[in-house]
Amino acid sequence: MLANPALVEILNRAIEKPVSREEAIWLMAECATDSLVATAGRIRDRTRPDIITYSRKVFINLVNLCRDTCTYCTYKKEPGDALLSMMDPRQVLAIAEAGKKFRCTEALFVTGERPEQKYEQARSWLHKFGHSSTVEYIQEMSELVLSKTGLLPHTNAGSLTKKEMAMLKDTNVSLGVMLETISERLTEKGMPHEDAPSKNPKVRIKTLESAGELRMPMTTGILVGIGETPDELVDSLFAIRQLHEKYGHIQEVIIQNFAPKPDTGMAQEPPAQSEYFRRAVAMARIIMPDMNIQVPPNLNPDTFGRYLDAGINDWGGISPVTIDHVNPEFPWPSIKSVKQVTEGRGRRLRARLPIYPEFLKGGFITSDRLMQYAGLISDDSGLVREDYAND
Ligand code: SF4
User: Fold this and answer.
1) Is the pTM of this model over 0.85?
2) Which of 62, 67, 76, 179 to mutate to test the pocket of ligand 1 (most atoms within 8 A of CB)?
3) Residue 266 belongs to domain spanning
4) Terminal CA-to-CA distance of the chain, rounded, Å?
5) Distance CA 15, CA 271 (A)
6) Count: domains in the chain
């Protein structure tokens, strides 16, 4: 691609000032990838210099039954599947205690979308513990893990209502729900979200808005390469930026690349092309200069360092204890190797809590008890004490 002077001018301005949607669409369509990446890197160096973070976590796969069906997903299981997970409190606590031994600070609770609405098996499992909804059980398990181990809960249970999120505010330092895409086109017949009503962008935006009203720090992000157009990708990033401008509660934005998996509806689709994905990562930084941008290293095991060049400042959760149950075919790299890659690019790797420092210090946590637990394992900077998580 030629260096169009007007594009160069937008890039130069982007280093100091967020771009408009029209500018972003144009950059995504026509700017050379190396120029996008170099600009994104310079923006990150201005707004997030020196320290790259990760969260040392355990992945608690509470229940992997799911009411919805996304055509790329292998996380969701059916009754009778050998990998069906329906955890009891003893199993939950055992994982959290193992995490404590490895100095993890995050207990990531993940579930399918409202399994009790579809499966009698889920209803009777919840009933056994005295609950009628998954979120009630998450609330109890969050309390258990927090009080017994001090690991800080972070829940991703899909599209929760405001009332449900409020139930988790005293035990969870943050919540997660991927926007994935703002494109309603991807809910149409034959598209990946046709049978996933919770992935309708209106539903996801509503969840993220409700979280904003509750001042819950939120993790969200996009899934790149599931059939969106480049314009739709830019619009998804703008939707996230606008939510943050309104509520100030988006603590991180995950940029995740689609990888086809066997035995799914999208098994024959191509993965997100690496050039396109690199452009997407750089555009995220250009569109959201001051926000935390993350690419999970396990999904790009041989090339993850290049996303530092494209402006990210976080690697997300890495577990020395549990696998990534959403992407079990992609083992997490060792924290040591992530540190080497990070330092090889002249940055320091630090462990963070499942709530970023600016949110921990910014009055988002209203529970004194949660603040006390966070205070035990963090230092003045709001990151994990270096004598606690020192690899
Ligand atoms: S991606 Fe989430 S909502 Fe979609 S089928 Fe899998 S578990 Fe369910």
Assistant:
1) yes
2) 76
3) 5-28+51-377
4) 43
5) 31
6) 1
